[in-house]
């Protein structure tokens, strides 16, 4: 599976692959504030390092969990950023459904200040002894959050914000950045909500 695409299991136990389309949107999937903390995947700094090694951050140039340096306070900072995403991203999505337990809010001056002060350093590439590209290690939380803040700013500060979506499936609040060329992605995944929609249409037609 390519970095950034995530295997998710719904409350019905069925798994599907979900591509959140960007690093910032992907962070939302790693867990969240209550009541979404039951899906927490970042219990420890090691969990977070492993999660990051499978994320969009590693899409163009892979790195290993051991290449990331994360302390406990770093993990707290990562979760603070993620909590901000949970609150502000739904408010930026046209016709978003309500996310259960989450109060969506328009970007506040404090959010803006937080994002502007978080952007800055991002992971740095370098050349190894054979002249091939690799990441400078360790990759720090400052760089991880810098990359996430930059990703979000580039999306929400431009026309790209109109490509933020929430899956149109009923009972599905998965949020993603639509990277499809025509910009018409509607579902978290075709195997899940897209397929349910097709089946629903089929049943509706045949019940007429
Ligand atoms: Zn869905």
**Terminal CA distance:** 41 Å
CATH topology: Jann2411-like fold
How large is the radius of gyration?
A: 18 Å
Return the domain count.
Answer: 1
**Percentage of residues in DSSP E strands:** 5-15%
- Largest sheet entry: 2 strands, antiparallel
Provide the CATH top-level class. Answer: Mainly Alpha
Summing up helix and strand content along with how strands pair, one would put the structural category as: alpha+beta
- How much helicity do the residues have? 25-40%
The stretches of 5 or more residues where confidence is low (pLDDT under 50) are none
- Write the element-wise H/E pattern from the N-terminal end onward: EEHHEHHEEEHEEH
Shape: globular
What ions, cofactors and ligands are bound?
Answer: zinc ion
Domain Zinc finger CGNR: 163-206
Organism: Kribbella albertanoniae
Protein name: Zf-CGNR multi-domain protein
InterPro entries: ABATE, ABATE_dom_sf, Znf_CGNR
What's the helix and strand layout?
Elements: E1 6-9, E2 15-18, H1 23-28, H2 45-53, E3 68-69, H3 72-92, H4 109-118, E4 125-127, E5 133-135, E6 139-140, H5 141-156, E7 164-166, E8 175-177, H6 190-207
Parallel strand pairs: 3-6
Antiparallel strand pairs: 1-2, 4-5, 7-8
Bound molecules: zinc ion.
How would you describe this structure to a colleague?
- The protein has 208 residues and is α+β, with helices and mostly antiparallel strands.
- The protein has a single domain (6-207), classed as Jann2411-like domain (Jann2411-like fold, Orthogonal Bundle), CATH 1.10.3300.
- The chain is built from 6 helices and 8 strands.
- The chain has helices spanning 23-28, 45-53, 72-92, 109-118, 141-156, 190-207; strands at residues 6-9, 15-18, 68-69, 125-127, 133-135, 139-140, 164-166, 175-177.
- A hairpin with a 5-residue loop joins strand 1 (6-9) and strand 2.
- Helix 3 packs parallel to helix 5.
- The structure holds zinc ion.
- Residues 167, 169, 172, 174, 187-188, 192-193 line the site of zinc ion.
- Zinc ion (ZN) is lined by residues 167, 169, 172, 174, 187-188, 192-193.
- It comes from Kribbella albertanoniae.
